[in-house]
Amino acid sequence: MERLIELIQKSQSILLSTHRQCDGDGLGAELALYFALKKINKDVRIINVDETPRKYRFLSPDFHITYFSEKPDLQAQADLCLIFDTNDERLLEPLYSKVLKPHCRHIAFIDHHPVLKQGPQPTRDSFIDVQSASTGEIAYRIIRALGIELDTDIAKALYTSITFDTQLYRYIRGSANSHRIAAELLDYPIDVTLIHRHLFGHQTVQKFAFLAKALGQIEYFCDGQLAILKLRDADLFHYNLEPDESRDVIDMVMNIETLEAAALFREDAPGEYKVSLRSKGQIEVVSVAEQLGGGGHVHAAGAFVRRPYNEVKDLVVRELSKKLSVAGT
Fold it and tell me: Which whole-number Å values give the CA distances from 274 to 177, 198, 208, 231, 258, in the listed order?
């Protein structure tokens, strides 16, 4: 991390960003660094690929973030760009190739996901720590290493990041670090009840109507150990839901007692799908995601694909069935 800290210290103009269809981890991490770098008089801006999902309005993102669709005006090169919660440049397109790469002298990915075995490699200035349970934890360490004092805005953003990606501290990588950092953040006057409600309890009547239809269409394989679910773009539109509002559906499915693995295919456009994979125990899913051009963690991975649905579904069912057979579950 020393190289990254030195690079930040030497840079005056800094851009921040995260992957498309941002989530609480990437958004919270970039906002925390935004507030922190402002405190040491850096010229800092956030430019994201697309608009922030409405569940994060409690962070007032539109006051601090410029979106690619707004055609950001960059008259001069930035010294540094920090990209949070991914190490795959493809997840920032077209922002990466049209704005960040041509306008930034240095680019550093700050992430806790494993580097892809196949695909673009992170820049040499990047910092990847797969032992961290969230990118927010890395952002906290960066802020501390820079000697910047925390405040309420920083604490709120970091708490959002860590709480979201650990799913209320259920997935902490066997470390106490998430809890230790959260305990420190709670020394600041942040409304954790509000944060928890927006992240995990902000459901609408339309969302439940959507779930009632979607969950009834689950397909089961391998004697009920594998579940497959397709979410149609037309249904999201019918119930006036954002794509982000389907993010938790696969985790609901994984609560089914017999399941060892699940795959969710969310249709974003005709022939375009966001594939989300989850598993338990000995079953890993990241290798399946990599076959689809994606990546992630051992038990939680995903990919964006442009292929016929049945083709992708058959591949996923085949590969996950093999893993279940080998594991003998």
Answer: 31, 23, 21, 10, 24
pTM above 0.85, yes or no: yes
User: CA-to-CA distance for 280 and 265, rounded, in angstroms?
Assistant: 19
What band does 119 get if pLDDT is binned at 50, 70 and 90? confident
In the predicted structure, residue 55 carries a pLDDT above the cut 90: yes
Pick left, alpha or beta for residue 174 (phi over 0 → left; psi -120 to 50 → alpha; otherwise beta). left
Tokens of 269: 């456009």
The string of DSSP letters for 32-92 reads HHHHHHHHTT-EEEEEESSPPPGGGGGG-GGGTEEEGGG-----S-EEEEEEES---GGGG
Instruction: Using DSSP, state whether 217 is helix, strand or coil.
Output: helix
The residue ranges of DSSP E strands in the chain, in sequence order, are 13-18, 43-48, 65-67, 78-84, 104-111, 127-128, 219-221, 226-231, 261-269, 272-279, 295-296, 300-306
- Both ends of the chain: CA-CA distance in Å? 41
Measuring CA to CA, which residue among 117, 48, 45, 127 is closest to residue 78?
45
**Helix (H, G, I), strand (E, B), or coil: what is residue 246?**
helix
Give 170's Cβ-side CA count (13 Å radius): 5
Cβ neighbourhood burial of 39 (10 Å; 0-12, 13-18, 19+): middle
**Which CA distances in Å does 270 have to 206, 244, 252, 266, 307?**
23, 18, 25, 11, 10
